[in-house]
Automatic annotation (TrEMBL):
Residues spanning the signal sequence: none
Cellular location(s): Cytoplasm
Lineage: Bacteria, Pseudomonadati, Pseudomonadota, Gammaproteobacteria, Chromatiales
Pfam family, one: PRA-PH
One cellular component (GO) term of this entry: cytoplasm
Protein known as: Phosphoribosyl-ATP pyrophosphatase
Molecular function via GO: ATP binding; phosphoribosyl-ATP diphosphatase activity
């Protein structure tokens, strides 16, 4: 896999010092957590609608929007994409039931 997530994460980090009028991401940060969460909700809904329409091109487009806004959330919260990759890596190879058991469910 490419280092895209790392490069994008660095850009998102740099936008913490940027002028909200010059950057979409800086504007999201300036509006705060609730605005970022609202965007994630909207993009998730648009992804669901694309899938219900059976429009694969739109699924890719909307999923990119969704992933992008979750990356903005991670940066806002002081987290990195690597934190999520580490969690997926920890789960990799476990069955769904084993993963569930580790959560105590
Ligand atoms: N990958 C993205 C990216 N994907 C989606 N978007 C923006 O996310 C928004 C998606 O929201 P919608 O589809 O609802 O469109 P909209 O109506 O314009 O959204 P709103 O402005 O109303 O929130 C659009 O404004 C897109 O431009 C992105 N904006 C930025 N990036 C990356 O983030 C980097 C930093 O961006 P800036 O901070 O703008 O320089 C860029 O270089 C890109 O690599």
């Amino acid at each position: 896999m490419s280092d895209l997530l790392e490069r994008l994460s660095a850009v998102l980090e740099s936008r913490k010092d940027a002028d909200p009028d010059s950057s979409y991401v800086a504007k999201l940060y300036s509006k705060g957590l609730d605005t970022i969460l609202k965007k994630i909700g909207e993009e998730a809904t648009e992804t669901v609608m694309a899938a219900k329409d059976g429009d694969n091109q739109k699924i890719v487009y909307e999923t990119a929007d969704l992933w992008f806004h979750t990356l903005v959330l991670l940066a806002h919260q002081g987290l990195k994409p690597q934190d999520v990759l580490d969690e997926l890596d920890r789960r990799f190879g476990l069955s769904g039931l084993e993963e569930k058991a580790q959560r105590g469910e």
